[in-house]
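Project outcomes to date are best conveyed with an example. Our students and postdoctoral researchers have been running inverse folding experiments weekly, and each run begins with a structure described purely in C-alpha coordinates. The record below, which covers 217 residues, was selected by the lab manager from last quarter's runs and is presented without edits.
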Protein backbone atom coordinates (compact mmCIF):
# COMPACT_ATOMS: atom_id res chain seq x y z
CA UNK A 1 0.00 0.00 0.00
CA UNK A 2 1.26 3.50 -0.85
CA UNK A 3 0.95 5.23 2.52
CA UNK A 4 2.06 8.56 1.09
CA UNK A 5 -0.96 8.68 -1.24
CA UNK A 6 -3.25 7.77 1.67
CA UNK A 7 -1.77 10.19 4.23
CA UNK A 8 -1.57 13.29 2.01
CA UNK A 9 -5.30 13.61 1.22
CA UNK A 10 -6.15 12.77 4.85
CA UNK A 11 -3.96 15.65 6.02
CA UNK A 12 -5.68 17.99 3.57
CA UNK A 13 -9.11 16.90 4.86
CA UNK A 14 -8.14 17.37 8.51
CA UNK A 15 -6.52 20.72 7.73
CA UNK A 16 -9.64 21.85 5.87
CA UNK A 17 -11.92 20.78 8.70
CA UNK A 18 -9.83 22.47 11.40
CA UNK A 19 -9.17 25.74 9.58
CA UNK A 20 -12.56 25.89 7.88
CA UNK A 21 -14.47 24.95 11.02
CA UNK A 22 -12.59 27.40 13.18
CA UNK A 23 -12.99 30.15 10.62
CA UNK A 24 -16.70 29.41 10.25
CA UNK A 25 -17.29 29.52 14.01
CA UNK A 26 -15.44 32.83 14.30
CA UNK A 27 -17.53 34.33 11.52
CA UNK A 28 -20.81 32.94 12.85
CA UNK A 29 -20.00 34.06 16.38
CA UNK A 30 -19.03 37.52 15.23
CA UNK A 31 -22.14 37.92 13.13
CA UNK A 32 -24.29 36.59 15.98
CA UNK A 33 -22.77 39.19 18.29
CA UNK A 34 -23.26 41.95 15.73
CA UNK A 35 -26.85 40.81 15.22
CA UNK A 36 -27.48 40.78 18.96
CA UNK A 37 -26.19 44.32 19.19
CA UNK A 38 -28.48 45.32 16.34
CA UNK A 39 -25.68 46.10 13.93
CA UNK A 40 -26.78 43.35 11.48
CA UNK A 41 -30.15 41.76 10.60
CA UNK A 42 -31.11 38.83 12.83
CA UNK A 43 -31.14 36.29 9.99
CA UNK A 44 -27.56 37.07 8.93
CA UNK A 45 -26.12 34.27 11.09
CA UNK A 46 -28.39 31.75 9.35
CA UNK A 47 -27.17 32.91 5.95
CA UNK A 48 -23.57 32.60 7.05
CA UNK A 49 -24.20 29.08 8.33
CA UNK A 50 -25.79 28.14 4.99
CA UNK A 51 -22.85 29.60 3.05
CA UNK A 52 -20.42 27.78 5.35
CA UNK A 53 -22.22 24.49 4.72
CA UNK A 54 -21.95 25.07 0.96
CA UNK A 55 -18.25 25.84 1.29
CA UNK A 56 -17.73 22.66 3.35
CA UNK A 57 -19.49 20.61 0.66
CA UNK A 58 -17.29 22.27 -1.98
CA UNK A 59 -14.15 21.37 -0.05
CA UNK A 60 -15.35 17.77 0.37
CA UNK A 61 -15.83 17.55 -3.41
CA UNK A 62 -12.62 19.38 -4.33
CA UNK A 63 -10.21 17.29 -2.25
CA UNK A 64 -11.08 13.89 -3.89
CA UNK A 65 -11.16 15.62 -7.29
CA UNK A 66 -7.69 17.01 -6.68
CA UNK A 67 -6.46 13.60 -5.52
CA UNK A 68 -7.81 11.88 -8.66
CA UNK A 69 -6.15 14.49 -10.87
CA UNK A 70 -2.85 13.99 -9.08
CA UNK A 71 -3.05 10.21 -9.46
CA UNK A 72 -3.93 10.55 -13.17
CA UNK A 73 -0.95 12.87 -13.68
CA UNK A 74 1.36 10.46 -11.85
CA UNK A 75 0.19 7.60 -14.07
CA UNK A 76 0.71 9.71 -17.18
CA UNK A 77 4.21 10.68 -16.01
CA UNK A 78 5.03 7.04 -15.29
CA UNK A 79 3.87 6.01 -18.78
CA UNK A 80 5.97 8.77 -20.36
CA UNK A 81 9.04 7.74 -18.36
CA UNK A 82 8.52 4.13 -19.42
CA UNK A 83 8.21 5.15 -23.07
CA UNK A 84 11.36 7.26 -22.85
CA UNK A 85 13.21 4.37 -21.20
CA UNK A 86 12.22 1.97 -23.98
CA UNK A 87 13.34 4.46 -26.61
CA UNK A 88 16.69 4.82 -24.83
CA UNK A 89 17.10 1.03 -24.76
CA UNK A 90 16.51 0.78 -28.52
CA UNK A 91 18.88 3.70 -29.09
CA UNK A 92 21.55 1.94 -27.02
CA UNK A 93 21.30 -1.15 -29.24
CA UNK A 94 21.63 0.97 -32.37
CA UNK A 95 24.63 2.82 -30.92
CA UNK A 96 26.25 -0.50 -30.08
CA UNK A 97 25.74 -1.66 -33.68
CA UNK A 98 27.35 1.58 -34.89
CA UNK A 99 30.31 1.08 -32.55
CA UNK A 100 30.77 -2.56 -33.60
CA UNK A 101 30.59 -1.76 -37.31
CA UNK A 102 32.95 1.18 -36.84
CA UNK A 103 35.70 -0.87 -35.19
CA UNK A 104 35.38 -4.03 -37.31
CA UNK A 105 37.91 -3.01 -40.00
CA UNK A 106 40.48 -1.97 -37.39
CA UNK A 107 39.96 -5.18 -35.43
CA UNK A 108 40.28 -7.19 -38.64
CA UNK A 109 43.48 -5.49 -39.80
CA UNK A 110 45.29 -4.41 -36.63
CA UNK A 111 44.30 -6.72 -33.78
CA UNK A 112 46.84 -9.22 -32.49
CA UNK A 113 44.30 -11.99 -33.04
CA UNK A 114 42.48 -12.67 -36.31
CA UNK A 115 38.79 -11.68 -36.15
CA UNK A 116 37.10 -14.62 -37.85
CA UNK A 117 33.67 -14.70 -39.45
CA UNK A 118 32.49 -17.00 -36.68
CA UNK A 119 33.52 -14.49 -34.02
CA UNK A 120 31.77 -11.67 -35.91
CA UNK A 121 28.60 -13.75 -36.26
CA UNK A 122 28.54 -14.21 -32.49
CA UNK A 123 28.58 -10.44 -31.97
CA UNK A 124 25.63 -9.80 -34.29
CA UNK A 125 23.67 -12.84 -33.10
CA UNK A 126 23.97 -11.47 -29.54
CA UNK A 127 22.60 -8.09 -30.67
CA UNK A 128 19.69 -9.81 -32.42
CA UNK A 129 18.89 -11.81 -29.29
CA UNK A 130 18.86 -8.66 -27.17
CA UNK A 131 16.65 -6.90 -29.75
CA UNK A 132 14.23 -9.83 -29.59
CA UNK A 133 14.11 -9.55 -25.79
CA UNK A 134 13.50 -5.79 -25.97
CA UNK A 135 10.72 -6.15 -28.53
CA UNK A 136 8.59 -8.66 -26.59
CA UNK A 137 6.21 -6.11 -25.06
CA UNK A 138 6.66 -3.29 -27.58
CA UNK A 139 3.47 -1.57 -28.77
CA UNK A 140 4.72 1.79 -30.06
CA UNK A 141 4.35 1.77 -33.86
CA UNK A 142 7.23 4.19 -34.46
CA UNK A 143 9.67 2.13 -32.43
CA UNK A 144 8.41 -1.09 -34.02
CA UNK A 145 9.16 0.28 -37.49
CA UNK A 146 12.59 1.48 -36.40
CA UNK A 147 13.36 -1.81 -34.67
CA UNK A 148 12.49 -3.57 -37.94
CA UNK A 149 15.07 -1.40 -39.73
CA UNK A 150 17.59 -2.26 -37.05
CA UNK A 151 16.77 -5.96 -37.32
CA UNK A 152 17.27 -5.92 -41.11
CA UNK A 153 20.68 -4.31 -40.69
CA UNK A 154 21.70 -6.86 -38.07
CA UNK A 155 20.66 -9.77 -40.29
CA UNK A 156 22.45 -8.16 -43.23
CA UNK A 157 25.69 -8.15 -41.25
CA UNK A 158 25.03 -11.65 -39.99
CA UNK A 159 24.63 -12.77 -43.60
CA UNK A 160 27.81 -10.90 -44.57
CA UNK A 161 29.78 -13.02 -42.10
CA UNK A 162 27.92 -16.25 -42.91
CA UNK A 163 30.64 -17.59 -45.23
CA UNK A 164 32.97 -20.17 -43.79
CA UNK A 165 35.96 -18.45 -45.41
CA UNK A 166 36.90 -15.17 -43.74
CA UNK A 167 36.46 -11.97 -45.73
CA UNK A 168 39.41 -10.01 -46.98
CA UNK A 169 39.88 -6.60 -45.38
CA UNK A 170 39.02 -4.36 -48.35
CA UNK A 171 35.54 -5.82 -48.76
CA UNK A 172 34.82 -5.37 -45.06
CA UNK A 173 36.15 -1.80 -45.16
CA UNK A 174 33.96 -0.88 -48.17
CA UNK A 175 30.83 -2.31 -46.57
CA UNK A 176 31.57 -0.48 -43.32
CA UNK A 177 32.01 2.84 -45.13
CA UNK A 178 28.73 2.28 -46.93
CA UNK A 179 26.68 1.13 -43.94
CA UNK A 180 27.86 3.45 -41.15
CA UNK A 181 25.97 6.54 -42.46
CA UNK A 182 22.81 4.43 -42.74
CA UNK A 183 23.17 3.25 -39.16
CA UNK A 184 23.78 6.83 -37.99
CA UNK A 185 20.61 7.91 -39.82
CA UNK A 186 18.63 5.18 -38.04
CA UNK A 187 20.21 6.26 -34.76
CA UNK A 188 18.96 9.81 -35.32
CA UNK A 189 15.45 8.53 -36.08
CA UNK A 190 15.36 6.53 -32.85
CA UNK A 191 16.73 9.47 -30.85
CA UNK A 192 14.00 11.67 -32.31
CA UNK A 193 11.34 9.39 -30.81
CA UNK A 194 12.82 10.03 -27.37
CA UNK A 195 13.12 13.76 -28.07
CA UNK A 196 9.44 13.88 -29.05
CA UNK A 197 8.44 12.16 -25.80
CA UNK A 198 10.52 14.64 -23.78
CA UNK A 199 9.10 17.61 -25.70
CA UNK A 200 12.50 18.45 -27.19
CA UNK A 201 13.13 19.76 -30.74
CA UNK A 202 13.39 17.08 -33.43
CA UNK A 203 16.74 16.81 -35.23
CA UNK A 204 16.49 17.01 -39.00
CA UNK A 205 17.63 13.95 -40.94
CA UNK A 206 20.44 15.50 -42.92
CA UNK A 207 22.92 12.64 -43.17
CA UNK A 208 24.37 11.92 -46.61
CA UNK A 209 23.94 8.30 -47.69
CA UNK A 210 26.52 6.85 -50.11
CA UNK A 211 25.13 5.50 -53.35
CA UNK A 212 24.99 1.76 -53.86
CA UNK A 213 27.66 0.13 -55.97
CA UNK A 214 26.61 -1.07 -59.41
CA UNK A 215 26.30 -4.83 -59.29
CA UNK A 216 27.48 -6.77 -62.34
CA UNK A 217 24.87 -8.99 -64.02
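After processing, the design step wrote out the following sequence:
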Amino acid sequence: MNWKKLIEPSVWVIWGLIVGGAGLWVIVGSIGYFGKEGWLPNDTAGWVQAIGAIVAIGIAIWIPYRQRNQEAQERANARTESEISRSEQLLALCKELSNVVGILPDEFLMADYHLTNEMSRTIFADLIERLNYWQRDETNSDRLNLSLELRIKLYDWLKFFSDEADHEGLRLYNKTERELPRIELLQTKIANVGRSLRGEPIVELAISIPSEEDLPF
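The chain has two domains: 3-74, 83-198. The chain has a mean pLDDT of 79. The training component of this project remains on track.
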